[in-house]
Amino acid sequence: MTGQLVRSFGPASAETAFDISSLDKGLYLVKVTHGIGRMSTMKLVKE
């Protein structure tokens, strides 16, 4: 992992899907900001 920002998406509703088809296979850390000052980090594995 390199720690680089690979893709950024703008504000969206909770039911929005994001197209990640252009990303290479691998492990990604996804940081989600929801609400004021609330963040979650999730692991995404693209095979």
TrEMBL record:
Protein name: Secretion system C-terminal sorting domain-containing protein
Superkingdom assignment: Bacteria
Organism: Flavobacterium album
Lineage summary: Bacteria, Pseudomonadati, Bacteroidota, Flavobacteriia, Flavobacteriales
InterPro entries named in the record: Secre_tail (IPR026444)
Tagged with keyword Signal: yes
Keywords: Signal
